[in-house]
Design brief:
GO terms for molecular function: 2-alkenal reductase [NAD(P)H] activity. This protein is an alpha+beta fold. It is about 20% helix and about 25% strand. The strands form 4 sheets. The protein has a 5-stranded antiparallel sheet, with no helix packed on it. It has a 3-stranded parallel sheet with strand order 10-11-12, covered by helices on one side. It starts with 9 loop residues before the first strand and ends in a 7-residue tail after the last helix.
């Protein structure tokens, strides 16, 4: 944590550093803790920099791609030797951007570190509702929830009674899409990669049915079995 009060001009800043590109699943040894960093809590005059104290950080599947020297649809690969970037929730300590002021709570892209200096308010969303746990803004009220809501309601435009298939249904976005579909009155089937995840879909998330795609020799045949009348979404 910081040495001394956050009102000091410079404080220590513990960081998680990405060491080098990975093959397969990431391991703890692919990252390192830097305890020697520091950060200025004041922004330069005329700058639009924003100093944020990070409160919650999100670990999401797309980050594995960036660790493998690949790009997601939005982000480029991580650079070895730099702080890992991801979605999080933070409190504004100092802001040169008129859109944000000291004390504001925000969610958006930040660093895996105690404090981040962000170059602008682009990609940051001011939190208006604090009557729910702030950690929700890394989930249902953050990127996964916005993705699920916009994709399902704004793009798919579902109607009651439609048949909905959700792949990767136990993931952060997929399980929300399935629950939104059920709230809309749709019939929902999801696929996942383990029996445990399949049971979560039907027993906890309320899917009408689910199957393990790894146990299906032919996906088209499986979908026809679960949707004999066809799939709407």
């Amino acid at each position: 944590m910081a040495d001394g009060s956050e009102k000091e001009a410079v404080v220590s800043n513990k960081q998680v550093i990405f060491k080098d590109y990975i093959s397969g699943f990431p391991k703890e040894s692919d990252m390192a803790i830097n305890s020697d960093g520091n950060v200025k809590l004041k922004v330069a005059a005329g700058s639009k920099d924003i100093v944020v104290k990070n409160l919650y950080l999100s670990c999401d599947p797309y980050m594995r791609l960036l660790m493998s020297n690949q790009s997601s649809e939005v982000f480029g690969p991580y650079a070895p030797g730099t702080v890992i970037k991801g979605f999080g929730v933070g409190k504004v300590l100092e802001s040169g951007d008129p859109e944000l002021k000291q004390g504001d709570l925000v969610w958006g892209m930040t660093g895996w570190e105690e404090y981040s200096v962000l170059k602008s308010a682009d990609g940051l969303f001011k939190i208006q509702h604090t009557d729910v746990p702030l950690s929700y803004y890394t989930g249902i009220l953050g990127m996964p929830g916005v993705t699920a809501y916009a994709g399902f309601y704004e793009v798919c435009k579902p109607k009651k009674g439609e048949y909905v298939f959700v792949s990767s249904a136990s993931g952060a976005v997929g399980q929300l899409v399935g629950q939104f579909a059920k709230l809309t009155g749709c019939y929902v089937v999801g696929s996942a990669g383990t029996q445990h995840k399949v049971e979560l879909l039907t027993n906890k998330f309320g899917f009408d049915d689910a199957f393990n795609y790894k146990e299906e020799p032919d996906l088209n045949t499986a979908l026809k079995r679960y949707f004999p009348e066809g799939i709407d979404i």
